[in-house]
Amino acid sequence: FTERGEVQLIIRMISSAEAPEIEFTVQDTGIGISDKQQSHLFKPFAQGDASVTREYGGTGLGLAISRRLVEMLNGTIEVESELGQGSIFHVRLPLGSLEGIALVEPGQIFHTSQVSVPPDNLPRLNCRVLVVDDRREIRYICQHFLEKSGATVITAEDGQQGVDVALAAREAGNGFQVILMDLQMPRVDGLKAVAQLRSHGFETPIIALTADAMKGDRERCLNGGYDNYLSKPIDRAVMLEMVWKYAQHVSAHKPYIRSQEQ
User: Cβ distance 51 to 31 under 8 Å?
Assistant: First the structure.
């Protein structure tokens, strides 16, 4: 929940324990967690505080699910944190017997031959795409996939910025053929942003990006003005095929007619 900083993942074997364990440590330089917040951190639907929930979203299920998975593996998960100083999460899992298992020594370097990856049959794109998502990693991965396939990509961090960018591009005569827009965002969410664009006469195909892969969500998106639906994590092949499909419609010399039966 910070603009700058880092996250480190440290993995080590603890052989001094009664039984050998592997420890995963995730350490960040984030906003930290108070003692009071830590007391309910691993409970379902718990968030640090309401202001964080409003600004950053989330359901409060990630750590609850993490703890259940760790406990199913007979492990433990713990947190150390201080407000303003970041957080450290430790996950320890029992390894069982290591007899006959070769271990890699720290610092040992392996040189592997380069394996050529056969080219895939993903479509080539020749279009302008606007990607709107409040999560930087989602914007980055979408931009990477799309640009590698030939598209020109502009990104926006929330719904209002997305609307402003789309309006400015159309005004400049350089509009987008396809818009990918997250459903849940701070300030202006996806449904409100799409409603604004449609009220300005936008018929551009708009595809929803969302982790809400629940029954009925696709219908909610279509009824709210989206043309189609992509669930997270993003599947590169599915995304490129969908963008190519809608870009082809827009590129044709005929009006693009929106339909809920895409």
Answer: no
Model confidence pLDDT, tens digit, residues 10-29: 999 888 767 889 999 999 98
> Which of the residues in the chain have pLDDT under 50?
52-53, 115-118, 253-254, 260-262
Burial class (CB in 10 A: 0-12, 13-18, 19+), 16: exposed
> Mind giving me the DSSP string for 17-44?
SSS-EEEEEEEE-SS---HHHHTTTTST
Which amino acid is present at 220?
R
